[in-house]
Amino acid sequence: MSDEINLSRLEPTLEGHEYPADREALAESFAGTTVLFADGDADLGDLLADVDQETFASAADAQAALQNVLPIEALGEPGQSDGDA
Fold this sequence. Notes:
This protein is of the alpha+beta class and about 80 residues long. The chain has 4 helices and 5 strands.
């Protein structure tokens, strides 16, 4: 597995693990994998460890839970809106 992935490749990367899976197993499995954001990066294992959910039924389930712990840098340019012109 690559040590660096783009945020857009998060779900395909998570699909490399067997499900159902618990948070601790996923965090351990993906420790050392860097997720690259629009402005910054974070360790995927650390992000998974920060999720409140204990178990995941699928990669999509894990990705959805990760959305709640992604830093603001993952979203793009701070202060920009999606069309308030």
